[in-house]
Amino acid sequence: MTQVLGVVLAGGRGRRLGGGEPKAWARLAGRTLLERAVGTLGPLCDRLVVAAPPGLELPPSPAARVDDLPDSEGPLSGLVAALGSRPFGSAIVLGVDFPLMRPVMLDYLLRRLATEGAAAVVPAPGGVWQPLAAVYDPRAVPALAGRLAAGERSVTAAVRTLAPLVVADGDLEGIEGGLENFFNVNTPRDLAEAEFRLRSRATPEPARSERAR
Fold first, then answer.
1. Can you say how many angstroms the Cα of residue 50 is from the centroid of all Cα atoms in its chain?
2. What CATH number is associated with residue 168?
3. Structural domain of residue 188, as residue ranges?
4. Nearest alpha carbon to residue 202 among 30, 9, 6, 7
5. CB count, 10 Å around CB of 65?
6. pTM of this prediction?
7. Which residues contact 24 (CB under 8 A, 6 or more apart)?
8. pLDDT digits (tens, 9 = 90+) for 142-189
């Protein structure tokens, strides 16, 4: 059985979210964004790591911390550091700013990786690649590390060189939650919208009356 590594990318200082705290500390329906990401990955993974810039304080977590690589900044640095920190058979990567992600979507991507033979499977909701909510084969690690060493800082540009399997709306919409899984939180307004969606998801539909039946 192949080992599945779960990688949480904790994000940065969260300046656009306000509040003066790193993005991982932002709370949504009573839980930090880091706690939510770890909880989403947990059932699917054998081991979990969380990548963050050196010195960035994070909420308590059962995931082992991995510092972003020195002399580089941004999500590509964290991605390369985390994927290179442990041996794995496949890896699921999730940024903390995807709080509406369901495990079933990540499991779907993981199964596509196993059957398609690609170095990565990247969802592209609305045509926009989401390499921080994607799955990776070990072959991706040296390729991404090479792009980072060559001066690349765009994680999307680096992942494109892997010739990944790109999953479009037609397939994504058939999985529970559909495109909502990729709702991205960057601002206070986004956070409020995510809270509304979570509460709506948890609210049971009212029972129909006998007359309505």
1. 11
2. 3.90.550.10
3. 4-202
4. 30
5. 16
6. 0.91
7. 10, 11, 14, 32, 33, 34, 52, 56, 58, 59, 96
8. 999 999 999 999 999 999 999 999 999 999 999 999 999 999 998 999
CA distance 80 to 131: 12
**Residue 178 C-alpha from the chain's centroid:** 15
1, amino acid identity:
M
**How many structural domains does the chain have?**
1
94 domain residue, yes or no: yes
User: Minimal CA–CA distance to 188: which of 15, 12, 36?
Assistant: 15
Residue 213 lies in a domain: no
Residue 198 tokens, joined: 């979570």
Long-range contacts of range 178-182, CB-CB < 8 Å, 24 or more positions apart? 179/125, 179/126, 180/100, 181/98, 181/100, 181/101, 181/102, 181/105, 181/125, 181/133, 182/98, 182/100, 182/101, 182/123, 182/125, 182/130, 182/133
Rounded (5°) CA angle 178-40-72: 100
207: in domain: no
